[in-house]
Amino acid sequence: MRDEEGAVQVEVHGNSRPIAGAQVSLYFQGPRSPATGRPTWFVAGRGSTDATGALRLPARPGAYLVTAKAQGFATARLSLTRPRGEALTPVRLALGAGVTLSGSVVERASKVPVPLARLTLTPRTVLASASVATTSVPEEERHEASADERGLFRSEGLTPGEYQLEVTAPAHSARRIARVQVPASGLVVELDGSAFIEGFVELPEGKPATQARVTATGMGETFETETSAGGGFSLDVPPGVYQVSARLDALTGTARDRAVVGAGMTLRDVRIRLGAAASLTGIVRGKGTSAPIAGATVSIAPGAMVATFDSAPAEVASATSGVDGRFDAGNLAPGSYSVTVRAKGFRALRREGITVLAGQRFELLAELDANGRIEGTVVDERDQPLAGIQVTPERRWRMMPMEGALTAVTDAQGAFVLEDVPPGEVFVAARRPGSQLHVRERVAVSPGQTHQVKLELGGEGTLEGTVKLADGRVPTAAVTVFAQLADTARTEAHQIPTAADGTWSMRVRAGRYRVAAWLVDVGNQNSDQEKVVDLKVGATERVDLRVREAERPLSVTVLEPNGAPSVSATVMGAEAGKNEIFLEDSTDASGHVTLVADSLGTQPLHLWATNGGRRGDLPSVPATQRTLVIQLQPGGRLTGAVRSAGGRSIEGFRLVVSATKSEDDFLSRQELELAGDRFVVEDVNPGAVTVSVTLPDGRAGKADTTSVAGQTTQVDVVVEAGGAITGRLVDKAGKPLAQAFVDVDGLTSAPTGADGRFRVEDVAPGQHRLIAWSEKTERAEKTLTLAVGKSQDVGDWKLGPPRIEPGRLGIFFGMAGDDVLVRGVLESMHGDALRVGDIVQSIDGATVLTAGEARERELGAPGSPAILLIRRDTRTYPVTLTRAP
């Protein structure tokens, strides 16, 4: 850190006065480490505050965490961004009294105390450049504690706020609780027993393999051990699904079947026969230039079997490209891998599903797009330039900053420059310092090009209030407050946690907002109170909210085919016999999840669970049932070969296995890249599936088959010259539909552009099923037959409004305190007669007290009238609507 690159000016206060001698640490956040999958941290500067409570530390542009410690106070911390173009970034830290977290650690099944458990508390900090909380902090900023012999723990001197809590104990699986509100007392942490995978590793001739390295991967972390003199091994792992492999010198091997284990369970006799190792070689070059890229890093990690947001698999091999762009990474066990290629000045390339069989050599061509550049200005409503505005390139989803691209700050003319922006869809976000919500403008960045953008930043106000339970108590569990500006995507809404006393505050741009809150352990499922407020420039709107504990909780346990709890299974629910999904969540490490059906009426429910290719189904669950178990059926296995109709050799291909379910489910697909001409695909959804193959030269083929639960199905695919399918999606008025999608046999095309056009390349000859959809239209289907090597244009494909169940009104109900609220109305329904925020007092003369009652009263004869008594502002009057025919 050099003075000429800028600095951070830290001021530390406590009890409304400057604190001299406070110890300040400034940490710089680096790129993700391939070894851990987490961001790296470096100490950028340390020092003590002077008599005025101030300290200046040099700091180049980038992301930082700054902390302050002083005797008698809890640690103060702040996540911040040093933007390009800002000479001095001011930081004010307020020290306060420490608080306590206390509780006990017990075994889940027996409730017996677990002695001497280790606890790690990681503070959740909100990224300064986005409204996203992160648990990425330097190790020394975490808090360690231990339970005593009775399983009791007490951690003192903590800063009030939210933490991630991890608990470990011998002979028990680690437990992670994502959000714990501190201070708190009486917290009970339940641990499950350890899970073990045991087996043997054999040499090619069948003799025991001594000191072979055994690895289990698939749940976001890697677990390793060595074999004994007899070739045996035992791995202590968290419950879940694993791929188990072994290495000994130049030999590698992988267990034939995936290992599925639950808490307290031991999976025995897992056998691995070592053989020739596989390898990954290739060349890294610039896309469009074919110029070799030297010094590019190639990181190879196991393919995850469960998607996790807070961890990434550690790499098992790596390589660096030479002056000719070539790299070579060997000694890989058979299996599926994720490969990431990075080079300075280029967009990182990530390839999932790179799959190798024993002894295969996979040749990878990594063509990297050069980064682009964005220039622009930020102005106010009068088109006057705004200085000091922070501008950040973000991804569309979760409002996350783009890794490697720095935040900039506007100059006196409101101008800014964003350097090294990865090509593709980029959302340029502008915000005033201290504000949460900001303006986001979509920019399609082309490789190596400079793009211009103009952002208008309007006036702001403050939303603040409290969140309490229905009986007036402050919630002791973590609470999320949600604010969404009208006519914006839900992904652009702002979410913040409440303070320990239930208060919250956010500074946002003026406009009309939907504001809601929910208990984190229940989620946004049970019609919590929601309010609609109009925020004017410079004003403060107080929004006090009530959250409710579940009145109709469904305790669901999902079991794997072998009886082990199913970790991270997706559980979904709809009204029995209907298609619309109302409930969705994932199971924890014990295979358990609680769904809340308060917003649904008293009708029976249809519940189902999926985890990979395993699925379980309960077609009709009575409204009175509160506890249930879903048993998953095993997935199928596909093996086969690819051959060319013209007789040419096959030396590698891309394979997609897709299963199109009915409307109450989703497109299930696996995508792999393989060497040679053979394939093996595990954990395939039972039922009708389509196997699509594409070669680098454009040849393509497809085969339809049936996957059978627990069995292996043989299917071969013949490739011929591929073709293309093109067209344009339009709405019922003929206007182009942007950001819509077309799926071909489960292979999703890129989103349509502003002109509504789509093009799907390298489509195999033969019959295909096309599905077109968007968030604001119906789901429509077409079937067509594509000739060898030909393109086919489907022309203008008209999509009507979303289909509504006959007899319904297309209204989404919520709660505003004790009142039933209109949360949403499907477009094209009822004109301006109803709007978000209206209070519904009765339907067809029957008073409605809950969202579930409103949903039951809403349903009537198709095409029949419905009379709603609504309250809007100070007026109460009837509205007559027509149910869907």
- Strand residue percentage: over 45%
Number of helices: 1
Chain-averaged pLDDT: 88
What do we call the CATH topology of the largest domain? Immunoglobulin-like
* Form type: globular
Major sheet size, sense and barrel closure? 12 strands, mixed
Number of domains: 10
Low-pLDDT regions: none
Broad structural category: mainly beta
- The CATH class name of the largest domain reads Mainly Beta
Rg estimate, integer Å = 29 Å
Task: State the fourth-level CATH superfamily of the largest domain.
Answer: Carboxypeptidase-like, regulatory domain
Distance between the termini: 68 Å
Helix fraction by DSSP (H/I, runs of at least 4)? under 10%
Total strands? 76
CATH architecture heading of the largest domain:
Sandwich
Report on the structure:
It contains one helix and 76 strands. It folds into ten domains: 3-95, Carboxypeptidase-like, regulatory domain (Immunoglobulin-like, Sandwich), CATH 2.60.40.1120; 100-191, Immunoglobulin-like (Sandwich), CATH 2.60.40.1120; 195-276, Sandwich (Immunoglobulin-like), CATH 2.60.40; 278-368, Sandwich (Immunoglobulin-like), CATH 2.60.40.1120; 372-456, Sandwich (Immunoglobulin-like), CATH 2.60.40; 460-547, Immunoglobulin-like (Sandwich), CATH 2.60.40; 553-620; 636-716, Sandwich (Immunoglobulin-like); and more. It is globular, with a radius of gyration of 29 Å. It is an all-beta fold. Strand 60 (687-694) and strand 61 (699-707) form a beta hairpin. The model has no long low-confidence stretch (mean pLDDT 88). The strands form 18 sheets. Strands 28, 29, 31, 32, 56, 57, 58, 59, 60, 61, 62 and 63 form a twelve-stranded mixed beta sheet that branches. 1% of the residues lie in helices and 55% in strands. This is Carboxypeptidase regulatory-like domain-containing protein. One of its GO terms (molecular function) is carbohydrate binding. Pfam families: CarboxypepD_reg.
